[in-house]
Amino acid sequence: SNVRTMSTIRALQIQSQGGPEVVSVHPIPAPTLSGSGKVIVRNEYAGVNMIDTYHFGGLYPLQCPIIIGQESAGVVEAVDPDVTSVSVGDKVVQYGGGSYTEKQLLDAERVIKLPSSISTKTAAAAYLQGLTALTILREAHPVKKGDWLLVTAAAGGVGLLLCQMGKAFGANVIAVTSTPEKCELAKQHGATHALTYNKENPSEYIDSILKLTSNHGIDGILDGVGADTWESNFSIAARKGTIVTFGNASGPVPAFAPLKLAPKNLKVVRPTLFNYVTTREEREHYSKELFDLIEQGKVKINVHDEYPFTTEDMRRAFADIKSRKTTGKLVVKI
Ligand code: NDP
User: What are the residue boundaries of the Enoyl reductase (ER) domain, all occurrences included (predicted)?
Assistant: First the structure.
């Protein structure tokens, strides 16, 4: 007969955007090579990011059905004949859409080979958030020795990396979190000072920051919280300071008039990683800098928890990252 068994893999593919009920891990056809420029990676770990909740939840509209997930690390299983940058058996990492899947078809140029000292678990835990933190400090607000930096959600995934890299690059880091325990963790990761934020009483927070900086204010405000911290940023910024607004953990920031920047000649930057790390050259450059920081021990990767790759556990992972109870990185064992 003509019956063939289609090989399948498991993937987190959503059929529509919505509540946690749209999150489902189920079988889909396995990818196959098309002839040119592609590789198939057998994923070992994927990283959980706040953006996943915007993707299934609908803050960022997507065409469905779609496999969500933004980063993974694994082993190269097959390569097209013209691919020379990686070989079968190489351990690799990549960021980009469609990562919550057992096997992933990728453009070879998107895939970066791991140094032998970095495991696929560490890579999946470090990559997207590490590149985000690095490009914020190199491009959005090119950090200078002695700068005052403020990091919101400082005990989170991106936050702990910003604290460590900020310190490594010679800045004074003030961490902002929602609990004293998270403040302590941020201090253990390079923050010189740490304080909690109360959106009902921002003046106390603003006064503390101005006092800590001897009224200089903050040169680089690195804010992934968004809505809740937005307004205070204008009061705590130094003259000629930069507000880097890079996330929406508490909701997107409101529209504002450019004249709001004039009293201190402020800059506002709203970056996404994808526009800093786009070309092969940019991928290689920033991946190498990130791997070097990890190998030199300047950046430690904190894994909060490892989740199995099932519907129930993925729903739990997303509930956890939204709950504000996690610190560091959440990873999925694929
Ligand atoms: P985190 O691990 O930092 O988790 C989110 C944290 O945000 C929480 O732990 C919490 O810390 C804080 N938070 C503040 N208000 C809320 C709220 N209302 N609901 C939930 N959390 C809240 O996540 P990530 O490291 O993945 O992401 C951090 C931010 O960086 C996000 O806004 C994300 O979108 C952004 N990001 C942007 C990128 C870009 O390219 N622009 C790339 C990667 C991430 P606390 O309790 O201490 O306030």
Answer: 18-332
Q: What is the mean pLDDT of each run of 10 residues along the chain (334 residues)?
A: 73 97 97 94 97 96 97 98 97 96 97 97 98 98 98 97 98 97 97 92 93 98 97 97 96 96 98 97 98 97 96 98 95 98
Gap from CA of 198 to ligand 1 centroid (Å): 16
Calculate the CA dihedral of residues 209, 214, 216, 221 and round it to 10 degrees.
-30
- Quote the pTM value: 0.96
pLDDT of 192 reads: 97
Nearest atom (ligand 1) to Cα of 158: 25
CA of 9 from ligand 1 middle (Å) equals 31
Q: Determine whether the shortest distance from the Cβ of 129 to ligand 1 is under 6 A.
A: yes
ipTM of the complex: 0.98
* Beta carbon of 324 within 6 Å of any ligand 1 atom: yes
| Cβ-based burial of 20 (10 A; exposed 0-12, middle 13-18, buried ≥19) | middle
Ligand 1 within 6 A of 246 CB? yes
- Could you please report the per-residue DSSP string of 263-292? GGT-EEE---HHHHS-SHHHHHHHHHHHHH
- Shared domain for 240 and 223, answered yes or no, is yes
pLDDT at 16: 98
| Ligand 1 touching residue 228 (CB < 6 A) | yes
- CA-nearest residue for atom 43, ligand 1, is 129
Domain count within the chain: 2
Angle between helices 280-295 and 120-135 (to 10 degrees): 110
Show which of 270, 292, 307 is a domain's final residue.
Answer: 270
Q: Does residue 247's CB lie within 6 angstroms of at least one atom of ligand 1?
A: yes
Same domain, 16 and 117: yes
Answer yes or no: is the C-beta of 321 below 6 A from any ligand 1 atom: yes
Same domain flag for 263 and 285: no
Residues 150 and 257 placed together within one structural domain of the fold: yes
Indicate whether 135 belongs to any domain. Answer: no
Do 183 and 279 lie in one domain? The reply is no
Q: Closest Cα partner for 115 from 157, 81, 73? A: 73
